[in-house]
Amino acid sequence: MAGLMGSFNRRLDYVRLSVTDRCNYRCRYCMPEEGVDWLDHEKILSYEEILVLCRLLHEMGVRKIRVTGGEPTVRKGLPDFLRRLHEEIPALHVALTTNGSLLHSMAVELSAIPLAGLNVSLDSLDPEKFRFLTRCGSLDDVLEGIRAFKARSDTPLKINTVLMRGFNDEEIPALLKFAESCGAVLRLIEFMPLDESVWSRDRFIPADDILKSLPEPEKWIPETKARRSPNHGIPVGPARYLVHAETGQRLGIIAAVGHHFCETCNRLRITATGELRSCLFSPEGVSLREALREGDLEAVRGLILAEAGRKPKCWKEASASTRHMSQIGG
Predict the structure, then answer these.
(1) Could you give the number of structural domains in the chain?
(2) Is-cis flag, bond preceding 70, omega within 30?
(3) For a designed S-S bond to 274, which of 12, 118, 185, 289 qualifies (C-beta 3.0 to 4.6 A apart)?
(4) Residue 106 domain-assigned?
(5) pLDDT digits (tens, 9 = 90+) for 19-63
(6) 3-class SS at 211?
(7) How far is CA 212 from the centre of its chain?
(8) Cβ neighbours of residue 201 under 8 Å, at least 6 residues apart?
(9) What single-letter DSSP state applies at residue 45?
């Protein structure tokens, strides 16, 4: 399969694809309390259009699609779409990221789909903190959803936690215990400055401090079986994994700010409107929607290649977007 090459000789084989800008939460680091204006349905790619786009991306060398939002589970028909995506492109690795709020009601349907992975965002195990951060979420719904899904599926499960000093950093032991109890891998993430109005350096915890705050930090050792990136053979992805020397439990730490992974970044992002972005921090991308709706796949291919070639060497070279995270797609 021909590879999709970006700037600085990086092979781009991973796409984060948003299927909706809508979300049932109002997380403080993601959108304002009043929410944002939802897009009209006709501006969002249909599932059929997304399938066509995914087939083209796969032909161009993309090996993995991660479906995101907004919150992807609020879009009607998501399980059927995921099933079709797997059936029509069986070689494509399809993963899902969710806040877990609707996971319990979808556990049966989703567990029947051979997903490559499921990531659940969970920033606190304290009900009051959880509701404060999400502004409207129910912790019990998320925990029940995680347990219901794992009871039915052996899909690899990761729990993503954004750490904030003085807010949830003391919950690391409890989060590790919960992750272990449900067969998940906990990933602790540096608080990124995605929205300067809510980001605070006082809340930021660098990866080195996260390591020091782990229970029995000396027993967490670097994992040796790291999956290698097609870019220079360096371990792939933003997470660096550790293994507990006695229990064998795995833990990921994502140093998105302190030790960025731009050199090995293998991903592109597509918003719900069909806008392709080569970097999360790019102020703008290129729209694939019009060419896609006209059926001009060669034009779509050309736009993808051009945007891939504009991928910045480092996120610090890109100007931050003025849109909220829910509109870009994590």
Answers:
(1) 1
(2) yes
(3) 289
(4) yes
(5) 999 999 999 888 877 778 889 999 999 999 999 999 999 999 999
(6) helix
(7) 26
(8) none
(9) P
Q: Tell me, yes or no, whether 2 lies in a domain.
A: no
Any domain includes 1: no
**Closest CA relative to residue 203, chosen from 28, 5, 17, 8:** 28
Report the Cα 74 to chain-centroid distance in Å. 16
Tens of pLDDT, residue by residue over 131-184, are: 999 999 999 999 999 999 999 999 999 999 999 999 999 999 999 999 999 999
Ramachandran class of 214: left when φ > 0, alpha when ψ lies in -120 to 50, beta otherwise: beta
Note whether residue 32 is domain-resident: yes
User: CATH number for the domain including 74?
Assistant: 3.20.20.70
Which residues are CB-contacts of 301 (< 8 A; sequence separation ≥ 6)? 56, 60
Alpha helices in 135-278 (DSSP H): 139-152, 172-181, 207-212
AA identity, residue 318: A
Instruction: Give the number of other Cβ atoms within 10 Å of residue 321's Cβ.
Output: 19
Q: 203: domain range?
A: 7-328
